[in-house]
Specification:
This protein has helices spanning 2-35, 37-41, 56-59, 65-75, 97-106, 124-127, 135-145, 151-174, 186-202, 216-224, 230-240, 242-248, 255-275, 282-290, 315-346, 348-365, 373-377, 380-392, 429-432, 476-493, and strands at 81-86, 89-94, 181-185, 294-296, 302-304, 399-402, 407-410, 416-419, 424-427, 494-497, 522-527. With 534 residues, it is α+β, with helices and mostly antiparallel strands. The protein has a 4-stranded mixed sheet. Strand 7 (407-410) and strand 8 form a beta hairpin. The chain is globular and about 90 Å long.
Length: 534
């Protein structure tokens, strides 16, 4: 009997071993077949690391994803596109600007969607946000939200921003030492600016994150945008394995975040409806949109009255748009602002020219008139500095799209490849904006390249920081307005200087999905001489 049992056990062990060997064999064949995807189609590519793909150096924290894509961009300079393995998923990376324009603008109907796929019922905030929406649902929501970001609406929200900037500057001044100096970390500083500005413009809530440093908006925002920890892994997984994450029904926003933002938005709306409160912010616009009270005039501005562009709204639809607006304002704007502060600190000549423009405007305004949206928009050098920062340090290293119907890519030599529905596309935005053929001396911070009388005018389509075509970032105008307003007030009071902790040149933090400085953005703030007695 014992010998029989022993034989059965041995047989089971042998069977288990055989099954494992078979599974490993099938996995090997699958991986090997996947790795031949571009070779079989005649598409140039770099042989990938098994399972990790071409992003192995990024995943093992050897290089930032911007540097990985930048190196491949340069390697395939003789091609309009090349292949990239995102783990095992093949991605077509389009490097030729004319082909980028064709895909994002002329042939947009072939590339309407992002790769991310979320169940809007299971992950109601991000799943119902404009960024994650697909096909006709995206078109409808985009049409409804576009009025919120017209010049007329920016003008109404601008007063909220300037009032906050004035208060924040006073708080910074109060924390300076006796010599009128302070060493500040820019990412932290601008996160607090962004947190408070978006809280007031999107949610109608007044916060001062410089005084109340652990308020719920700030702490949740930091958790939400921490792209080096668990949240970063989630973003990577949802980007690289969209179908798997949808199948597993995992959430990008935690239940705690969902409950918090839903409560804030619904409670604010209820109070405004009960008390008849009207405030010129995002919630007010969404309340109008929900009631079908927005329509466009001949200049695409908003007027009240019956709307031709309608859709059914749920509470989560309203909450989702506010939350993602908060996400963009909290992280994207703080990233742009941190890099801009660094460049101004290490290029004092640029800072002096910008300060001269600001002082000219301040003199014209006098002591009684406040900065207006129109005045800010007319400040050409401020705009040039912001645009050059976006070019050199774009917050989004690449754009992504999914092919929604068959499409043919053609290389310089006439070789063609057929894309099918579901194939992924990346546009290496950071690499394109560092291409010396498009931007001479690309590593130089030179705002004058955006001057109207520049000898080498910039192709506006090459500025890809906020995307291109119908699927560009709807909040780009707000982001630039906020950034420029903040620097108007900062440079009115302070000089930004490189200090002992300033890292220059900047080394990108390899562990972060978004571009960030390896050792932080440390800058010395010095109170201006003409402000010491104010």
């Amino acid at each position: 009997m014992a010998s029989l049992l022993g034989a059965l056990v041995a047989g089971l062990v042998s069977l288990e071993g055989a099954l494992l060997m078979a599974l490993f064999g099938l996995l090997y064949l699958y991986v090997a077949r996947s790795m031949r995807y571009f070779a079989d189609r005649g598409v140039p590519y770099v042989p990938p690391t098994p399972l990790l793909g071409n992003g192995a150096d990024f995943l093992t924290r050897k290089r930032h994803i911007t540097d990985v894509l930048g190196g491949m961009y340069q390697k395939f300079a003789k091609h309009r596109f090349f292949g990239y393995f995102d783990f095992l998923s093949p991605i077509y990376v389009v490097r030729d600007l004319e082909l980028v324009k064709q895909i994002c603008i002329k042939d947009f109907d072939h590339f309407v969607n992002h790769r991310i796929q979320l169940d809007e019922n299971h992950d109601p905030l991000f799943g119902r946000a404009l960024f994650a929406m697909r096909d006709s649902r995206w078109r409808n929501m985009r049409a409804v939200l576009s009025p919120a970001f017209t010049g007329s609406k920016m003008r109404l929200m601008f007063g909220l921003i300037t009032s906050y900037c004035e208060a924040a500057v006073l708080t910074i001044r109060s924390e300076m030492d006796a010599g009128g100096q302070a060493e500040l970390e820019m990412k932290e500083l601008f996160r607090r600016f962004g947190n408070d500005i978006v809280a007031t413009c999107a949610f109608g809530i007044e916060i001062n994150s410089f005084r109340d440093r652990a308020n719920a908006f700030y702490t949740l925002g930091k958790e939400l945008t921490n792209l080096e920890g668990l949240q970063g892994l989630k973003f990577l997984a949802f980007s690289s394995f969209p179908r798997l994450m949808r199948t597993l029904r995992l959430r990008l926003f935690s239940e705690k975040m969902t409950r918090f933002f839903r409560h804030v938005v619904m409670d604010t709306i209820a109070q405004r409806e009960q008390r008849g409160i009207v405030r010129h912010d995002m919630i007010n616009l969404l309340m109008q949109a929900r009631k079908q009270e927005l329509r466009f005039d001949e200049n695409d501005n908003v007027e009240t009255g019956p709307s031709k562009r309608t859709m059914d709204w749920t509470d989560d639809d309203v909450t989702a748009q506010c939350t993602v607006f908060f996400f963009g304002g909290y992280d994207t704007v703080s990233t742009l602002s941190a890099f801009m502060a660094h460049e101004l600190a290490v290029h004092p000549d640029v800072q002096e020219r910008l300060r001269a423009e600001i002082d000219t405007v301040r003199t014209a305004l006098g002591d009684t008139e406040k900065l207006s949206y129109e005045t800010l928009q007319a400040m050409r050098y401020l705009d040039m500095v912001a645009m050059e920062t976006l070019r050199k340090w774009t917050p989004a290293p690449f754009l992504d799209r999914t092919c929604t119907k068959p499409y043919v890519l053609e290389d310089y030599d006439g070789r063609k490849v057929q894309l099918q529905k579901g194939d992924g596309i990346w546009v290496p935005a950071a690499a394109i904006m560092r291409d010396p053929q498009l931007f001479p001396e690309p590593d130089r911070f030179w705002p004058e390249r955006f001057s109207a009388d520049s000898s080498s005018p910039v192709d506006s389509s090459a500025i890809l920081a906020f995307g291109l075509g119908p699927r560009n970032c709807i909040g780009s105008r707000f982001a630039l307005m906020e950034t420029k307003a903040v620097f108007f007030y900062l440079l009115s009071h302070f000089r930004l200087e490189a200090g002992p902790r300033t890292q220059h040149p900047i080394q990108l933090k390899k562990a972060s999905l978004a571009p960030s400085a390896e050792n932080g953005f440390w800058i010395r703030f010095r109170l201006r001489e003409d402000q010491r007695t104010v």
